[in-house]
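Page 47, continued from p. 46.
Same chain as before, 133 aa.
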Amino acid sequence: MRNIDKIYASLGLAWLIGAAAFGTWLGASGHPNFAQSHAHIGLLGFVASVLFGLMHKAWPELRQSRLALPQLVVYEVGTVVLLTGKVMIDASGQPNLLLMTGAPIVIIGGAMFLWLFVKSPATAPATMLSPAE
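Result:
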């Protein structure tokens, strides 16, 4: 998938906006019990998604794998499910099925990316800098 790097970066930036909005609500409403959820949204949503996008940009051969799009879907869906469950735990203090389902899905999405990265063919960098003469 040619634009998967841009899709990942866009999703990451959407996660950033969501994390910022949630953090603003968190601070304004005095709900410090949601601080861990806010951090998880930033890390699993924004940071990981942007890093996946940057890795796809740095290693273009990753984009050509048939596993690239399924990995994106598994990771992002798992992240939504996990974070929904995390917010629910912060609200109630009770474990829930969403968190217990989302966590392994995110782990599978991460493992899929590891497989994609390790099994991708080694290629020379797309552009090489040469010293000025």
